[in-house]
Write a structure and sequence with these properties.
Distance between the termini: 66 Å
Mean pLDDT: 88
Radius of gyration: 17 Å
Strand order of the largest sheet: 1-2-3-4-5
Order of helices and strands: EHHEEEHEH
Low-confidence stretches: none
Number of strands: 5
Number of domains: 1
CATH superfamily: Gcn5-related N-acetyltransferase (GNAT)
Strand content: 25-35%
CATH topology: Aminopeptidase
Number of helices: 4
Oligomer: single chain
Structural class: alpha+beta
Largest sheet: 5 strands, mixed
Shape: globular
CATH architecture: 3-Layer(aba) Sandwich
């Protein structure tokens, strides 16, 4: 008999999720996570979400709307800050997030999605949903002190 798929919910993260999100990251201060979730100016245009499975937070991610100057260009969303609980990797959580984006945010029909993944990693869910490589991402890291000396 097939095992029942867990019931998953995706919703906007709240300050009350700070402790669970900190557990996903594995480091950091709960109070700092709470302050960032409470401050709507921390990341203008970005909304943080959690995925819950049977009442447990199993993932967190962020969506940022990207403005387009190009005429007739489709709206774009950037999917980033994806953190999965290690115990649920390979259990379909990423697929559930992409399906939610498809259904609730019209990704693939009205909006394009750009998704950031660590170098050398291509989540299997990207292939299943037809995400293709289209851009390279470059990071200008913050370095302590004066870079010009």
């Amino acid at each position: 008999m097939a095992e029942a798929k867990p019931s998953r919910t995706i919703r906007e993260a709240t300050v009350a999720d700070a402790r669970a999100i900190r557990e996903l990251y594995g480091f950091g201060d709960v109070e700092e996570f709470a302050a960032r979730l409470a401050d709507t100016h921390t990341a203008s245009g970005t909304t943080h979400y959690v995925a819950e499975s049977d009442g447990e937070t199993v993932a967190a991610f962020a969506l940022t709307g990207l403005g387009r100057l190009r005429p007739d260009g489709r709206d774009r969303l950037l999917l980033h800050e994806i953190k999965l609980r290690p115990s649920v990797r390979g259990a379909g959580v990423a697929e559930d997030i992409l399906a939610w984006l498809e259904e609730s945010r019209a990704v693939g029909t009205e909006r394009e999605l750009l998704a950031l993944a660590p170098l050398g990693q291509r989540p299997a869910a990207f292939d299943r949903f037809g995400l293709s490589e289209s851009h390279q991402a470059f990071k200008w890291a913050v370095v302590e002190g004066d870079r010009r000396t």
